[in-house]
Fold this sequence. Notes:
The protein has 279 residues and is α/β, with parallel strands linked by helices. The protein is 28% helix and 14% strand. The longest helix is centred in the last third of the chain and has 16 residues, at 263-278.
Amino acid sequence: MIIESSKQVSRNHLFKRFPIPTNFGVTKESRVDRGKAWPAPAGATRTKSFEVYRYDPDSGRGPHVDTFEVDLDDCGPMVLDALIWIKSKVDSTLTFRRSCREGVCGSCAMNMDGTNWLACTRFISEMESPARIYPLANMKIIKDLVPDLTHVFAQYAAIEPWVQSKTPTPERERRQSVEERSQIDGYYECILCFCCTSGCPSHWWNGNRFLGPAVLLQAWRWLTDSRDEAAEERLDKLEDPFRLYRCHTILNCTRTCPKGLNPGKAIAHIKKTMIERQS
């Protein structure tokens, strides 16, 4: 199923029925402890509890979870609104990324109640109580909810995401027919939030060599673009036991894409193209 709205993401998880302790099998340095609890403002009548992951490497303290009681009558309807409210009125040290607030930039991608999504498009009313806010999994954390995206953007750069041509540059633009233009629909809309890559078990295991669903979706976007003339060179670079073929079609990527895209389908197209050129 292609996910088009956060309402379609299942709130039923196996491990809620068979819970594993938060700190099960982790090292002492990675244990997530209980942090400070911030009470609701005086006079607040409609509140919601948010458990927010906190980590400041400069403090010398390990990761912990602070609890905030948010006054719902004093903030907007989205999870991002609640985080902004907390930062503005409770704890100014809370750190997270945000920009467009329209589901376009991908800056506010994080894990909410166990699902990767954009904080600006997830309604507070869709969250459990308490709502649990964590950074994207499988990423080094710079501070609080801010993951280090250096590695995944380096993988993105490795596919050379721009038009590569061999014919002389035309006087005007490189034209496409309506049908040719439609071939990149469902791929060009990727906003590089990396929700899919963070949710991909294959990237957890082989993230140093497997490019991950976000980058491979972008790779197919350029392979299927009629204006690009470097398909063979692009495929040569992907012909590797790890870069492409570590995808095991688990499809967590498709389930967690906040733009309703299908990275798994893009990866399947690349694999099919690999086979076709060998025959």
